[in-house]
């Protein structure tokens, strides 16, 4: 998931819409804080590789469900 921040934000927002999730759901499922999710989505923070992996793992698990 090596995307520019704007594309990552769009992907996260689209994922939440598609799966009817809130930022809280995304935070809980990925084990990141809600504040961190907000900062990543707004482009205020660049996610670490670990955070990207956690997001990817959660998103893949929901996509298969």
TrEMBL record:
It comes from the Bacteria. The lineage of its organism: Bacteria, Bacillati, Bacillota, Bacilli, Lactobacillales. This is XRE family transcriptional regulator. GO terms for molecular function: DNA binding. NCBIfam families: LBP_cg2779_fam.
């Amino acid at each position: 998931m090596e995307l520019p921040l704007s594309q990552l934000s769009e992907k996260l927002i689209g994922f939440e819409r598609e799966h009817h999730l809130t930022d809280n759901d995304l935070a809980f499922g990925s084990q990141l804080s809600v504040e961190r999710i907000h900062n990543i989505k707004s482009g205020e923070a660049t996610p670490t590789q670990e955070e990207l992996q956690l997001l990817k793992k959660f998103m893949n698990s929901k996509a298969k469900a």
